[in-house]
């Protein structure tokens, strides 16, 4: 294309001077005829060439200033009018198809029925509700950067043409400012659609945890869209317009556009990473850690320049602090379980809320074993750390040399839970009930471990056998504490008398023996009907074990001595129970209801 005469170029520039012509104010060059736009650019080129000559007139200087002002307006108008509509919710849905199920759609933990829900009470002096609501698995996404065209290619071409001329005329700063202002407004609009709020670190830390849980879920989804699509597409657009125009201008424009929004985005995760630690926060912190871990390679790609190093460093530091927070919370959780102070015995010797809470909690921990195995690299300090402290249980770590540090931490939590429960059992005045309490709680621990394949693998069958042995020993101790004295009434010793002329059974001693048995059994029946074994199979097994000892002994005793009582007066005062009566009475045990309630049930 032949160059224009300088005079012609100046006329073209002045014709489009928006400060001097109403017609020029109302029209945009690049919105009309393509030839007109090319002619204007040609005029600018001629003016720029004339500036390099030795003598430059004031008229030429004025023309280049008018041209740059006009190109700045054109640049802004193209950016605003040609921006493609970006629907971040569509991008969010697209990214979700590439990701495993999120926390909101994860299945509940096996065996985590309504009765196993974490207690709403403040067991460990923290809000126990959080852990229960965070039933979720860790995940690794296979999705990556998904760039889109934010501006049509013909508009990108025009923007590049304008940028080249503004930069070569010394208007780099103005070009960057206009670009950054318009594009940052677009990014802000996308943030609003994604539900990303402008919250300072202080604002985040003042929110209640229940509010933050929902915001964390939203942040994880939004961060993926922001890094992989929004920021990546903005970077691509900067490169399309500015790459090669000048030294690192594309980086400068990119950071002018996204630095503020990126800091805003990551400030939320940073606030969570440095917030006050408490056990209910662990799983959302791990969700954040997982999300940021899978995003780090994309962050390194999108923010790969020297000027964007602060964003990379911020993200890496947040990731490190999230890992540190997770380790700290696990340690504090162990300490809280050990020192949980409640002293009031749970009625009926049933499962303590602490046991439910802790076992549901570590079941959730097992769901995050991939992440936590990377974060937890040292085994807990146990016996050697607390040498000689009677308030701390001991654990021989040499038994678990093949276990990962996380596995040992979970075993240690179960050890200190049992230690705490043993202490709580001492608050029962009835030794039988104390043993029943231990049996119930350790059995629950065993069932929770067996019910989770992940947890069972981590705990291991060897330690599971020890736990099984402990609840069976507690069941044996209960039977001894309750039934040895009852069965003692059914012995023969002390009933036979011998004299000079005859020998036989002392009816008075026999009457006293029946009366003692009746009184003891009635007391046990009345008391232990209201005790509770929640697990139906365990309840039935213990009843069978009781019956196997009690019923044959009573049947034999009754068979040997019934005649001596029935031959006397008022035998019904001494033989109150038939064998069938005892069998029925045993079925009342451990239901958690009174004898009178049992009687009403039978009469209905």
TrEMBL record:
Gene3D superfamilies recorded: Exocyst complex component Exo70
Record-level Gene Ontology MF annotations: phosphatidylinositol-4,5-bisphosphate binding
Origin: domain of life: Eukaryota
All residue ranges annotated as the Exocyst complex subunit Exo70 C-terminal domain in the record: 218-586
Gene Ontology annotations of biological process type: exocytosis; protein transport
Annotated segments matching region Disordered: 84-119
One Gene Ontology cellular component: exocyst
Protein keywords: Exocytosis, Protein transport, Transport
Free-text function comment from the UniProt entry: Component of the exocyst complex.
Recorded family membership: Belongs to the EXO70 family.
Protein name per UniProt: Exocyst subunit Exo70 family protein
Organism: Vigna angularis var. angularis
Source organism phylogeny: Eukaryota, Viridiplantae, Streptophyta, Embryophyta, Tracheophyta
Gene name as annotated: Vigan.09G191700
